[in-house]
Amino acid sequence: MRAAIITRPGGPEVLEVREVPTPKPAADQVLVRVHAAGLNRADILQRRGHYPPPPGASQDIPGMEFAGEVAELGPEAREWQKGQRVFGIAAAGCYAEYIVMHERALAEVPPNLSWTEAGSIPEVFITAHDALWKQAGLRPSETVLIHAVGSGVGIAAVQLARAMNAIPYGTSRTADKLDHARKLGMEDGVVLDASLSALAPAVERWTAKRGIDVVLDCVGGPYVTASVKAMAPHGRLIMISQSAGSTAELDLRTALPKWLTLRGTTLRMRPLEGKIAATRAFAAEVVPLLARGVLRTVIDREFPLDQVQAAHARLESNQTFGKVVLTL
Question: What DSSP string describes 257-284?
Answer without folding.
Answer: GGT-EEEE--STTS-HHHHHHHHHHHHH
